[in-house]
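Everyone, describe these structure tokens:
***
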Amino acid sequence: MIGYIGEGESMGKAVIFDLDGTLLNTLDDLADSVNHTLNYFKYPKRTKAEVRSFIGGGAKALIKKSLPENVTAEKYEEVLSYFQAYYKKNADKKTGLYPGVKKLVNKLSDENYSIGVVSAKGDIVVKELVESFLGDKVKETLGEKEGIKRKPAPDSILIMMDTLKCKPEETIYVGDSEVDVEAAANAGIKCASVTWGFRDKEDLEKINPLYIADNVQELYELIKG
């Protein structure tokens, strides 16, 4: 069942993170994989700035925005499939944690926060990247899966809240885009937007997020309230 059930004893406070642009700087590997794919199918390449602006809605949205407008639905599916297979093998070539993120996650874990990751990236890749860069400090991860609506629908966040056994008032979602702000609002929880990811601060301010953090220390203070 999707949604916070609220049965039994709560496990306390929880922080649910977005992945791309929030915990990990995945831009170079995503841009390389997008352009490798476009080149393979003989489509014009995209700049890194363009790819950065396309990130936030998962692989399907990324490829759709990267392709020319006149591509058929059949060709789009072929390109998407190729991209997903290629990126899965090349997701960690240049990717790394943002400065201070590992220390933050370790500190929150030591302070008994339940930590989860919810991403629009494919579930297997999410699990592999989180395990590789953050180890066992993240309790649960959830990426894109069949049958679960992707953000900004609240489904994946609500499922994570169920898994972590946390109440809405005890939970904060941390992301870097308008999609994250909307998803958190749809899930009925607070959202902190970080400015070191794939949206400029000016773009975030236009959507009037509840909180904005310019660095990891500010984010920690917002989480602690």
